[in-house]
Amino acid sequence: MLSEKQMSEFKKQLEKMKVETEQELNKFQNEQADKEYPNEKDGELSSIADHPGDLGTSQFEKEKEYTLYEQSREKLMEINDALERIKDGSYGKSEKSGEPIPLERLKVMPTARMRVDEVEDQS
To answer: Which string of b and e fits 10-47 if b means at least 16 CB within 10 Å?
Structure first.
């Protein structure tokens, strides 16, 4: 069972993680709004670049950025869920068994929902 002090420390850590993740998401959204695609700035009507390699590189970069955005979004949801578990008193207990999650695991992964052995059992 976590002490009040430990619970407070995890809450502060999660709140800090939340602010950082929200900043990452806002930065991505602002960068996307500011980006110009090569053909837009040249006034080209066609979406086909002069060289097929340029189009492939551009598409790869867009997909990579979107993947990072989605990972940040999922991280924010996990953080919010952990903060909600702190509010309702279920933080630090496995969602699967109700057993306490070891302090070491929570220190490494404060959003943990289950014990390591339970996660491995699901694989």
So the answer is: bbeebeebbeebeebeeebeeeeeeeeeebeeeeeeee
pLDDT (tens digit, 9 = 90+) per residue, 95-118? Answer: 999 999 999 999 999 999 999 999
Cα distance between residue 60 and residue 79, in whole Å: 29
For residue 33, how far is the Cα from the chain centroid? 21
Contacts of 54 (CB under 8 A, 6+ apart): 38
User: 55: helix, coil or strand?
Assistant: helix
- Ordered structural domains, the chain, with CATH: 1-9+51-123 (1.20.120.910)
Contact 79, 107 (CB under 8 A): no
Closest to 83 measured CA to CA, from 10, 24, 20, 5: 10
Q: How many CA atoms lie within 13 A of 35 on its CB side?
A: 12
pTM greater than 0.85 (yes/no): no
Rounded to an integer, what distance in angstroms lies between the CA atom of residue 2 and that of residue 80?
A: 19
